[in-house]
Design goal:
Two copies of one chain form a homodimer. Chain A is an all-alpha fold and about 200 residues long. In chain A, about 65% of the residues lie in helices and about 0% in strands. In chain A, helix 4 packs antiparallel against helix 6 (about 120-145). Chain A binds a DNA duplex (30 and 30 nucleotides) through loops.
Chain lengths: ~200, ~200
DNA sequence: AGGTTATCTGAACGCGCGTTCATTTCAATC
DNA sequence: GATTGAAATGAACGCGCGTTCAGATAACCT
């Protein structure tokens, strides 16, 4: 009675759409609170069809989180790092804010759904997160050694700065008082002072 | 066949136990992922008995969050604020870290389960959260006016500082490298520099 | 034009969910 | 020792869950 394929468009699109929809719904309502049938409805398909693209619900969550963190690390690699530690820290600050504000849903999921990962999946995600923390820690460490930064504890400073920067995603609105650039400038100002440079 | 009450102890304890257990499980696995039957099992009771103490699951979540935020605001009122803005900011920093590290589960829930609140409950919780943010904002504002702090944007600074301080709860471990006092001291150092004092 | 294959449907599976309630149990009171 | 009433049981309610799969469908290939 109904069409097995959407008229005029290849089902090449169902895979990406599934991930888009899942990302939005997981971010909005939480992984545990969203059903496969809700996702399927928004994709425009029956629930069973989703399993042509994912092994199961857990695999879908894991894939979203892993992709996000791999994108994050790859994007930083592709970013101009600047000459010295001070320039690197500014680059990191601006990069982090820009990257995170561009994908609020993925960020939300990566920070909030860790506890819904099965142990082995959790280990992978946690490893990627650690790698990103190390990026900042290395910058701070180099700057401290070069006498550019004043830090009582490099590791804590890295965690503090990342928490501060990531916090932007919880309140920033595109139609708000400040532009992204303005926010990045203000935060860079605070970060610079916090590390004693 | 089974006892309706636990031998020797009044059921006076079931209410508090219910909240304790729910808080721990919600923090660990998330509100949507925890069932009333799981909570009941840990309390040592059948699921139906829980409804002698709560209206429904949503009411339980709301009660946990409201109580936590009211405790937070009341505890700050009872705290010695110090003489000037600089002293007040130091008091706030140390208070925030101490209070949050003492109740990691409640903190987790208050930050992660906002999206599982029904709209009217959300409004109440959001109002309490705003009131707490205003506490810090007022301190920063006074310090700026007094020329003690250098801040390009008071509101952003307040959000940044709170995000930074609350971040402690995501990594701090009692058996870790640093004591709570040491962590508080290091963070106060960074906060002080970040606000230009 | 006809066959192949990727894709989707629709029904089914067992299960656990939040919540209600008549009944039972037992500490406290008289 | 009988009465009372708060507290807990255990069964039941309808429902939606994640997942599977045989069968239907339509785009693609020759």
């Amino acid at each position: 009675m109904f069409m097995a394929r959407t008229c005029g468009s290849h089902s090449q699109t169902t895979g990406p759409r599934l991930r888009d929809v899942a990302q939005r719904l997981f971010a909005r309502h939480g992984y545990a609170a969203v059903s496969m049938r809700q996702i399927a409805a928004e994709v425009g398909v029956q629930a069973g069809a989703l399993y042509n693209y994912i092994p199961d619900k857990q695999g879908l969550l894991f894939d979203l989180m892993r992709t996000h963190l791999e994108d994050l690390l790859a994007a930083w690699q592709a970013e101009p790092h600047g000459a010295g530690p001070l320039e690197a820290l500014e680059a990191f600050t601006r990069f982090h804010i820009r990257f995170h504000l561009e994908r609020p849903d993925a960020v939300f999921i990566a920070y909030m759904e860790l506890r819904n990962l099965e142990p082995e999946n959790f280990a992978v995600i946690e490893g990627l997160r650690k790698r990103y923390e190390t990026v900042l820690e290395d910058i701070l460490s180099a700057g401290k050694q070069a006498g550019v930064f004043t830090l009582p504890d490099t590791k804590l400073a890295a965690l503090a700065v990342i928490a501060m920067l990531t916090g932007v995603t919880t309140w920033y609105r595109d139609d708000g008082r400040l532009s992204r650039d303005r926010v990045a400038r203000i935060y860079w100002n605070m970060v610079r002072k916090a590390v004693g440079a």
